[in-house]
Design goal:
With about 350 residues, the protein is an alpha/beta fold. It has helices spanning about 35-40, 60-65, 95-100, 115-130, 140-150, 185-195, 220-230, 335-350, and strands at about 1-5, 20-30, 45, 50, 70-75, 75, 90, 105, 135, 140, 150-155, 160-165, 180, 200-210, 235-240, 245-250, 255-265, 265-270, 280-290, 295-310, 315-320. It has one domain: Purple Acid Phosphatase, chain A, domain 2 (4-Layer Sandwich).
Amino acid sequence: MRLNIYLYFFIFTYGLSFAQTDTIRLMFAGDIMNHGPQIKAAYRPESRTYDYTENFKYVKNIFNKADFVIANLETTIGVKPYSGYPQFSAPAQLPEACQNAGINVLATANNHACDRRKKGIINTLDVLDSLAVLHFGTYRNTMEKDSLSPLIIEKNNIKIALLNYTYDTNGLPVPRPAVVNLIDKKQIKSDIEKARKQLPDVIIVFLHWGTQYKTKPDWQQKNLVDFLHKNGVNIIIGSHPHVIQPVEYEYDALNGIDYLTVYSLGNFISNQRKFPRDGAMIFSLDLLKDDQGRIRLAGYESIPVWVYKYQKQKKNHYEILPVNDFLLRPAYFQTNAHYQQMMRYKRYFEQIIKP
């Protein structure tokens, strides 16, 4: 029997008496997009380089509280000419700014993974490797996937296996010998079995799925959640719809298992301005390992963020704002209309992510 539990909880709610020994905090951010106007905004003509630092300056303090910050990199990296939709390619300064802000793991399997064909896949991985940013979901070849998948992250005696899959690559074939993990139940089951052999405490699956701009999960998402639960995956994180979707938590009291699904994190950074595509959430979760080696979900939180786009000196600027930090700062915004747009997103967030 599963019992629905309040959105943010502490493990002691269950009346368990074991001592806390090891904990780890993970944070997840949504789609890191790179539309054409963002590329122009990041360009610095005096040095002929790019700088995305300002995008992330207000979320850095949040990310500093996590052991690992994982986000969806929805663009290829390093293939000129740089461009936005429909075939994305961003300069290396984008993942560099992500790293400097505290994002240290990037999921790369999404519908834009093949936008610049084999060169785009390989260049993206080369740049991430040069920055020492961990990544999962795409690989240079099958041998590399065999050796690097699942991605294992570990801290404080807690070992986590990460897997990443996408529903499609916009109809573009995956160029051989490169590998892009596609949502295929047979392959996913095989990957889960392989992951188990590495004896992780938790397997987390990051999925690029769902229907664009829909605020509720579709039947395919629900079906895949059931499949993953039956195969031993109890934490699922989603991206792709470009809007946030609900967070679902269930507790299997009979077996002592937490089930957590974040259906969609939304647009972490993008030029999509149509409401509610202009915001996202940072999802934070704490895992606890007790003195008997049992792993539990100790707590979680959904943090609303909104992309503030404004003009200064005839140039666009983009900032990811933690909404709650700016509720009492209307003077920060260029216009009251900007502030009201953020507040509109806050109200929407509270309708979708209910306690």
